[in-house]
Amino acid sequence: MVAQDLDRLHTHDLELGTTEATQKHIPRNVVPPRRVSQRRLDFEHSRPRWLRECIAEATGVFMYVLPGIGAIATFTLNATSPIGASAYGSLLAIGFAFALGIAFAIITCAPTSGGHFNPAITICLCIWQGFPLKKVPRYILSQIFGGFIAALVLMGIYHQQIGEMKELLLAAGKPLVANGAPASILCSFPNPGQSMGYVFLTEFICDCFVGFIIWAAIDPANPFISPALAPLMIGMGYAVMAWSFGDVTLTMNMARDLGPRIVAAIFFGKEAFTYMNYSPIAILASIPATLVSSAFYEFVFRDSVSVIQSGHAVHEDGDEALARHITRTTTVEGFEDKH
User: Fold this and answer.
1) What is the CATH number of the domain that holds 250?
2) Could you give the number of structural domains in the chain?
3) pLDDT for 169-223, tens place per residue?
4) What does UniProt give as the signal peptide span (predicted)?
């Protein structure tokens, strides 16, 4: 080690690491990182943008699905434990696992891809916010792939425990695909006797609620939420619905359901898609529901002038057109107030 390396820290400096995030909040300095080489810049420039976006979407879904289904696995596999399932997990723990997983996914992957992680969000952003139509199919496929990989990883981690549960159920003549069975670790299944109309209505309402929260959280004109707080608030929107209606049967995301459901079909049979004719609701309901809630926000709550003033949008005909609009609407409002 060179002597100058030993002396590079002054008493008021902080070493490189997570302390870099604190340099804007405390008066101490962080040791400057190594200079960026031209080789590094050339490498980063050569990476295909579309590939990075797809990988980010897949990684984001993986990061939130894995802890979520992991929490479900902990609860399900210990349901018959003498200690009791509550000692290992609960609906509360499952909700927090999904919520924090979503927040972590947004924090880590959204700077690259925009952080959709849900086909319904991708479709709605295309309709309302101008997200490029040509990117929609590859974003959706990447999201489904992320959920698929998360489910495969979970099956690998819990292979022994799931195998033991499978043997016990087969010996007892019980199904492997049902609510509370091994397949339900990966994707949702309704309770016996539940009406599919009732399940669809519950799913639709919960997805509308979550979609509305997301649209409010990503509105740059919303003064009550900062960009730093948005990931957690979006995650908590999912958690609140899981805590409230999780026992009814929810998925709230096509990618979260379809990818793991394919894995469930691989390991537990095609009944994963045919059980009580539920899978179309789980896979597709979030799309029309999010369209409804985002449309409601766009037509009732969106204030485009505030968005433009915040610097996040521009008038399509330029600043002069915006000035004419403001002058016209202000004059009309002032005239109405006087009369």
Assistant:
1) 1.20.1080.10
2) 1
3) 999 999 999 999 999 999 999 998 899 999 999 999 999 999 999 999 999 999 9
4) none
What is the rounded average pLDDT of the residues 18-26? 63
pLDDT digits (tens, 9 = 90+) for 139-164: 999 999 999 999 999 999 999 999 99
Residue at 22 is within a domain: no
**3-class DSSP assignment, residue 86:** helix
Handedness of CA 164, 168, 169, 171 (dihedral sign): positive
Range of the domain at 144: 47-301
185 lies in some domain:
yes
Per the document, the length of the chain is 339
- Give the whole-angstrom CA distance, residue 6 versus residue 12: 15
In a domain? residue 336: no
Distance between CA atoms of 178 and 106, rounded to whole angstroms? 32
Residue 24 within a domain? no
pLDDT band at 333 (very low <50, low <70, confident <90, very high): very low
Q: CA 264, CA 179: separation in Å to the nearest integer?
A: 13
Task: Cite the beta strand spans of the chain per DSSP E.
Answer: 13-14, 29-30
